[in-house]
Design brief:
The protein is mostly helical. Helices cover 44% and strands 8% of the residues. A hairpin with a 5-residue loop joins strand 4 and strand 5. The relative contact order is 0.15.
Length: 175
């Protein structure tokens, strides 16, 4: 963290203010990725954004020289899966190393996260942000945990209504 890094409380307040404005004026007209992926989780469809998904491993980085890395947040030697010029891309993506990287996201969640009522919405956040400790001092808590709890509790009643509206609407054209 740097002195200019956003604090969790500020992050939470920002998204709550944006959500309140959006839900009053812009639903269906303006699409905000954070809220769209949240709605996916409220509907049980998944978020479409890795940080709010149960597992990781689908946002890889392919470098110009063919090196493939497990994630765009982890372009470090220990997360190099191999080289696409030497092994098939699909083989690298399905490797034990990549599978473990992806499943570690849920397997290494602190108990505090496992017991959380909004876990379905954030799934513990991106592992890159999990450098804080839980209230019982267990490592691996997202730095933004408290802000996510505030945001997701705040938007919960609205998301429940939106999920029901989407689920009950007819498909096809309006009119």
């Amino acid at each position: 963290m740097m002195p200019w890094s956003v604090k969790p409380k500020q992050y939470g307040e920002f998204y709550i203010q944006i959500f309140d404005d959006w839900v009053r004026k812009d639903v269906g007209e303006v699409f905000v990725q954070f809220f769209d992926v949240a709605l996916g989780n409220w509907m049980g469809l998944g978020s479409g954004l890795c940080k709010f998904s149960p597992t990781c491993g689908h946002a890889v980085v392919l470098e110009h020289n063919g090196d493939l890395y497990a994630c765009d947040h982890y372009v470090y030697p220990q997360y190099r899966l191999g080289n696409n010029m030497e092994r098939q891309f699909s083989e690298l993506m399905e490797s034990d190393k990549q599978r473990k990287f992806g499943s570690d996201k849920q397997d290494l969640l602190p108990q505090y996260c496992k017991d959380c009522k909004v876990r379905f919405a954030c799934h513990g956040d991106c592992p890159k942000h999990r450098f804080a400790r839980s209230p019982d001092a267990e490592p691996g808590l997202s730095y933004l945990c408290l802000s996510y709890k505030r945001i997701f509790k705040h938007i919960d009643p609205y998301m429940q209504v939106m999920a029901q509206l989407v689920k009950s609407s007819r498909r096809g054209s309006r009119g």
